[in-house]
Known about the structure:
288 residues; alpha/beta; UDP-N-acetylmuramoyl-L-alanine:D-glutamate ligase; 9 helices; 12 strands; 38% helix; globular; binds 3-hydroxy-5-(hydroxymethyl)-2-methylisonicotinaldehyde
Amino acid sequence: MSYKGNIPRVAAIHDLSGVGRCSLSVILPIMSAMGIQVCPVPTAILSTHTGGFGDVTMRDLSDYISPTLSHYKALGLDFECIYSGFLASTGQIDHCLEFFRSYSDSLKVVDPVMADHGKPYKTCTRELRSRMSELVAVADIITPNLTEAYMLLGEEPSLMPLSSTQLKSLLVRLSELGPDIVVITSVFLGSQTCNVGYDRKNNKFWKVIYERVNVNYPGTGDAYAAVLTGSLLNGDSLPIALSRASAFLEYAIKTTYGYGTDTREGVMLERCLDFLINKQSLCDYELL
Ligand code: PXL
């Protein structure tokens, strides 16, 4: 089955949270606005994300993923990209690996959703943490935040500012786990906050400095990975993709902060998608 009218297609293996604007709830509108078709493969459905709404109702969809893959293979569907994110239980690592193996020519993006601000999410077990490296090993691109970057390396998470030499070492060590491209978000580089990327094949390190607003919204890592992936699928270079994703998040966070909404609700995406449709101006990028 094939004619898709030049629209890149992505299988996004991630959760669907009803309230709190994260995971598939942000990936779908973001990628659609960028002209990319997202085929959601939900790992779980949740009433809200796990970051502060109390007793979350959650259904683990582990038994859904493999039969969905079989159906897609029977249909002869192709995907330009397989993108994994929040996993509800450790067995889902195997389901993601099956997807990656079945679509070995597709771009493999792993967002190792496990933690933020130095702390693991409630659902991140020791087992999930130790097996996440198996996904990272087969990925082309990974997009950890700084906390997840340390966890993948088996190190104690720290939010201390880094020097550019320390940051380059972190990027190189992560790429030695498998991926050709490593992107780390929300990094403190001296007195600056930035998102950084390493392209092993071209031996290039990039940084995009952004203006930090002192507030944390859930789902921003998911949104960042979605814009970055969408941008690369649309043919942008790595530094432009880093820059587009950083600029979008800066815009979304500043827009939301101005309204003083409950931070648990995430960023006001509905006011911000115009940025992606109109390909608005970007943050500057530099070599790290
Ligand atoms: O944004 C990461 C994320 C994704 N999915 C769920 C979460 C979180 C972070 O809290 O709870 C369900």
